User: What shape does this take?
Amino acid sequence: MPLYVYEAKDEGKGCPKCNGQFEVMQHLADSPLSVCPDCGSPVHRVIQAPGLAHSKTDLHYRAKRAGFHSMKRVGRGEYEKMY
Assistant: This one.
């Protein structure tokens, strides 16, 4: 389930929860919240970048385990084998 971020439409009106940003886990089919679940003041959804990341360390580990080799550049045209 995606995690959505909401904040109050009018700053200063509402509870401490909706004056800052708060997160709500909702299904994709659920309609967006229009009011704060705690105080009932109007809120809107904030667009945020997704939290995607990949670990370079994990990729090296998986490649090594699969039998591949990794080369590290040490100079112009010179490489040394890391594993």
About this structure: The chain has two helices and five strands. The CA atoms of residues 60 and 66 lie 10 Å apart. The first helix runs from residue 16 to 19.
